[in-house]
Amino acid sequence: MFRARARWWLLVLLVLVGGCRCGDAPGVGGATASFRPQEEVVDFGRVLEGTQVRRSLTLVATGRAGVTVEAVTDAPFFVVVSQIVVAGSGTGTVDILFSAGNTPVQGELVLTAGRTTAKVKLTGVGVRPLACVPTGECRDSRFDLESGQCIESPQADGASCIPGSRCQENGRCQAGVCVGQPRTCDDDNPCTVDSCSPTQGCVTASVACPAPLNPCKVGVCDRNAGCQEVDVADFSPCGAVSCKAAQVCFSGTCRTVKPPDGFVCAPATPCQDEGKCSAGECLRPDAGDLESVFSAELGGAPVAEDGGPVLLVDDGTVYASVCGEDAGCWLAAYTEGGLLRYASPYDDGGARTLLAASDAGVVVLAPEALEAYAPRGVGELRWRTSLAISDAALDGGTPEGVPGTGAGRVALTKEGDVLTYVTWSGDAGTEPLRSRLVLLSADAGVPLAMGPEEDGGGAARLAVDDARGAYLYTPWDGRLAFTSWALPEPSTDGGALTAQMGPYFRDGLVTWTGAPTTDFGPATLEDGGVASLNVEPLGPGVPDGSPSLALASGRLLVGARAFVDTDGGVLGALDWDAGTRTLSPLAEPVLMSPGGTVGHALALACDHTDGTPCVDADLRTVLRSFSSDDGHFFSEVDVLPSPLLPGTFHEAALLEQGTVGVLADAALPNGQRQAWLEWIAFGNKVNQCALPGRVEVAGAVFSGDLLHVALRRDGVWRLESYPVGVRAEVHGWPQRNASPAGTRRAVP
């Protein structure tokens, strides 16, 4: 009994001694091994997509004994070291990475040591940065992570930059603005005309030597001697040609000869081979229809102002304003090969009419406003400017009347700036109240200069001479006037801008009411105004003229009535006296030869001699050619395709070798219409080619060696192009609405 009881007490003693040492490290008896995280949440905040951020979490030992903690989490969070040793009564650190995407995320960090487990919430927001693009040169743009926005700031002065105008180079930033040195475009070649386009840079064109008075001479430019007159090729026509008698050139002299058999009496055309003389008659093979270079559906009907261009052509692109029945209206651009460049819808879906085009933009007329669309890319809207530019509007008031402009009242400078003659009419669109001349910038459409507000207004025509200024003809009061401008140039030394007169402009015609403050021209003045644009009358004017104006080689053909020297001297009135016949001159087109010696104009003619009134079926359209020396007429030709059928004249252009190209149609007895391209030279209709099928022509434009036509065939509106065989003249104004781009600008 005693032995058993002693063993029992010994067992109890051993259990008690062992229990008091549980969880103690050697030498730290009585301490427990555990831990706790110092934070319950680790927030990584906003982090850029694709980047990593590290955060540290502190672990605190809850006893004097050290402990090893296992750390585990899931993507997009990662633990740098998964085992962390926390010293007794001390701390340890677990490092966590957040690999950011582009959305807010949450995760969990699980910490384990023995039987102790703790969980910590992980949060982070992945942010996809905006594509920050500076609004201009000399500006930096960076993405601000906290705000989620792009923040822009100016670059340091002296940083290199690319000027906004290609007429400047070696740009340096100054106060956040790129200032460059003027670019020199002179190629030291007297046979080229060198200029600078803000959008294209240096532009070179061949010198247009004056056309000699002798038709058997031609002006050519020699690099050493400049413009000279040389003989044209022998047998070149210098007048009317038939197989009875032909006026041809020999050794630079025009002679009348009797052509031998085999003499080429009619040139080849795109639809017919050349004609040759045989027994005194000009024999030609049968003509076929013209074959189109391309034919493309427009997708709607072309839209044009009455008398304005239906098509424009500039730098190899054909433009049309088109409206579909349910699709609204848009600006369409095609290559000259027929490929659609873009179809740019108008913002409100309403109709616009074409006015002019250049490399700076396509200018169209919107309701009471002008708009410009980019000529390339997707044809986005570049600017829109209200026509309500009156003194009341500038003073913050409401201008009286409805403003308007239109074809012929808009012209472009060589820089693409827009010169427009604006009139204000009563609410019903009648009774013009006042008018003014306005110059708008090519890049933003802001007013650069303005003429004075004048009483009255109405139809007008503008023309720009790049070397001098612009001409304005207002037939409602018979005034022919001249204006010029010189825009301020940016300072190259960082100082204030100054207004300068160009070397070719007349002194005193431009006045500035303040110093310009912008770096790209005189958008505004310091006092908020714009430059004043003076208008100087030239001579007595041309009363009773129609709204037409043409310019070539220093001479103006005004109102289809008179030739006027560009300095104001009247050279001679056009001889429209047709005896017993009635001639009613058409306003346009009026065509001038490159040398300015011959003018061409059209008229409606009625052959009634008994005094009875003419009806539409009796009217014929005739082309008359005049001498610019005294206005007497050289020749007259009926331009309608058939001498028996009524018809409609559509378009005319001056072509090479003194030929006038005409597009006209005839009304067939069955009610359909057929169109013809005709060639008229020296008072004779030398040939004509039919467009295929029965078509309704909306409008056309000659450009290069092509004729572009907007027409309806089999109920579908199409854009078609046809070969002409010779090229349209690029000097003077060969088209009804001026140049192919609609700009009434003479090329010096």
From TrEMBL:
Designated name of the protein: Tenascin-X
Annotated InterPro entries: ECM-enzyme_regulator, Ig-like_fold, S_mold_repeat
Keyword Signal: yes
Pfam families linked: Dicty_CTDC (PF00526)
Signal peptide residues on this chain, from the entry's feature table: 1-25
UniProt KW keywords: Signal
Highest taxon of source: Bacteria
This protein's record includes keyword Transmembrane helix: no
